[in-house]
Model the fold of this input.
Amino acid sequence: MQIKCQSVGLIFVSQEAYINQILQKFNMAEAKGVLTPVSREESDNHKDVSGKVPYREAVYSLIYLATATHADIAFVVSKAARVMDRPAEKDWNNVKWIFRYLRSTSNYGLRYTRDSGELKVFSDADFAGDMAILCMIQNDVY
Done:
């Protein structure tokens, strides 16, 4: 975990090194980045991949990341964790999508200021319903 004091009263907490490490570990370091943590594509491939891919290890890595500095992936990681006992190929593809998202957002983190008396968290996975951006994402044009 990297903690940077950017100025008086401003602290930035990130896990860029950890993200790069897990991307390397799961062979996703060179993957094309995406702009959202969840794919709009719905696969119906229910082929069992348990024992063939490091699903459980990947999800545990993502849980740690979601609880420490990346609250933006918490929802999709919790969905991935629901099928740890018997993941299907579609579930593994969803986990790989999260890794692709992290590839694009590895420099994100949490910023704390002295003036803020409370912690505020914002997450907007669908870009406030902006159809132009969603179409670009869907067609991998960005």
Q: What stands out?
A: The first strand starts at residue 2 and ends at 7.
